[in-house]
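Possible regression after last week's pipeline update?

I re-ran a chain I had predicted before the update to compare outputs. Posting the input and the new output here so someone can diff against the archived version. Not blocking, just want to make sure nothing changed silently.
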Amino acid sequence: MRMHEGCLLALAFVAVAALPADAQRRFGFGTPATEAEIRGWDIDVAPDGSGLPEGRGSVREGAAIFAEQCASCHGEAGQGGQMDRLAGGQGSLTAARPIRTIGSFWPHATTIYDYVNRAMPFNAPQSLAPDQVYAVTAYLLNINGILPGDAVLDARSLPAVRMPNAGGFTGPDPRPDIANTACERNCGGR
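New output (post-update):
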């Protein structure tokens, strides 16, 4: 990137960053988000478990919740229904038609909690309490052969679960929009 392009980019960023406050003053709409509003949307969970709430849930509790809230879409024991199959598929990732499930594909157990908490059940996302999400997560790990039937998960134990495909997402990403070596080597003087 040339120097003048960098300056123009910086000016554009400053102009865009100033828009919300200016829009509120000039047009009378929009308000800055409060800390409480931001906390309400800050629900992501990282692979290391940061973001997990207090709570606990067992495989047994999760089986009951799954039967009531999830089986109609994902099938009994997560073997597939109207929506994605959640269990099985171990060892199939190198096959011509891999079966991508929680037990075969997902690299982090915390991703299950994060996804269920944000998006499930489909007809009422974010309606499950933390204990229920831990329980469903425990059940899903159990039906994939990752946790025993008497397991209980919480914010400490969930990040410690080792997934079968934990090492499956290592190395450089070959997609050209992620790793463009032509640009990385010759980007106009960078």
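Follow-up from reviewer: compared with the archived run. Helices lie at 3-27, 35-41, 59-69, 71-74, 109-119, 130-143, 181-185. Marking as no regression found.
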